[in-house]
Amino acid sequence: MASRPYRLGGKLSNFFELPILAIETSCDETSAAVVVGTQVRSNIVASQIEMHRKWGGVVPEAAARAHVESILPVIEESLEYAKIALGEIRAVAVTNRPGLVGALSVGVSAAKALAFDLRVPLIGIHHLEGHLLSVLAVNPKLTFPHTCLIVSGGHTELVQVDGFGKYRIIGHTRDDAAGEAFDKGARLLGLAYPGGRAIQELAVDGDPTRYPLPKGLSGDTIDFSFSGLKTAMLRLVQSEGKNLSVSDAAASLQATIVGVLVERAIRACEQLGSETLTLVGGVAANIALRKRLLEACRQAGIQLIVPPTDMCTDNAAMIGLAASTRLARGEQDGYDLDCIASIDI
Ligand code: KG4
Ligand code: ZN
């Protein structure tokens, strides 16, 4: 059943100031947030990482079951923290693509039930649009066009952002994502899942020049390839055996990934004449990447915008921010909103 568009009254621009309840369950974090325009009033995240750690990665069936258990308490906590009653919510937003279908369907079912009960608009959000607009929390007056580097566990993309809802993928990974490269490298070094944070911590005491690793594609491309890095790490671990310095290997891996990301992002800005770059997604929490990219942007005269680290990894506030922009344009979805695994829509 498709929903009727609800008439909220007031001018379109006022829609940007309405309280939105946002839900994110695309992978292994159950999250709910209350967002009013570009203000994040609450952002509650119940992480399943501890549970998945024993399997070395996310088990889809277990993720969906854990979302079922956490979703209602997380929503309640997000409303309590924001000091907003459920009856004051004027729209419900939810990640409906891409992601694990079983996991997505928990958030989407909850969002549909709430939107129906409250008689407010339901807004389905693409997870990557959420990451992309997470910078609204620190820069509400985001200008266009700008370039965005999305780096997460599942995605590594350079996107040209011509306006809200106007996105062009200009560069992408041809195999593994940057977060995957961190996670797979960490696993080879015997570190726990997810490995990005663990690599960052070990790299502090390591020599990043000790083990030269491949940068993937050569030439003036703005695409990425990280699968050769994983193979090189495997060979390094096998050839060094007990002599391997884990901290030097972690530092070398981090420096290689960061070097490639910085080089391609700056090149993309130069090729497109962008004066602003945004850095988003779980890997954007990496301190070395934030530092190196800031230095490179300063040298190139580019403004860098990065969300706070707790808004880099998956969270519902970014979904609410993206929904604010859609609500401001009068967009909403019907109750036939689907959960879609694939990125290509
Ligand atoms: O955006 P995200 O939470 O989930 C996806 O949409 O994929 O990103 C998770 C990824 C994982 O690969 C994790 O290892 C990586 O982000 N990550 C980091 C750091 N924190 C999380 N990678 C490097 N350094 C970090 N501090
Ligand atoms: Zn994500």
Structural notes for this entry:
This protein has 345 residues and is an alpha/beta fold. The protein has 2 domains: 6-134 and 312-328, 2-Layer Sandwich (Nucleotidyltransferase, domain 5), CATH 3.30.420; 143-306, ATPase, nucleotide binding domain (Nucleotidyltransferase, domain 5), CATH 3.30.420.40. 41% of the residues lie in helices and 19% in strands. The chain has helices at residues 49-53, 60-82, 101-118, 127-133, 178-188, 195-203, 227-240, 246-272, 287-300, 317-328, and strands spanning 19-24, 29-36, 39-47, 91-97, 122-126, 146-151, 156-163, 166-172, 276-280, 303-305. The strands form 2 sheets. It has a 5-stranded mixed β-sheet with strand order 3-2-1-4-5, sandwiched between helices. Helix 3 links the parallel strand 4 and strand 5. Helix 2 packs parallel to helix 3 (101-118), helix 5 (178-188) packs parallel to helix 7 and helix 5 runs antiparallel to helix 8. It is globular. The model is unreliable at 1-13 (pLDDT under 50).
Biggest sheet character: 5 strands, mixed
Tally of separate helices:
10
Q: What value does the Rg take, in angstroms?
A: 20 Å
Model regions low in confidence, pLDDT < 50 over at least 5 residues: 1-13
**Number of β-strand runs:** 10
Mean pLDDT, as a whole number? 93
Name of the CATH homologous superfamily of the largest domain: ATPase, nucleotide binding domain
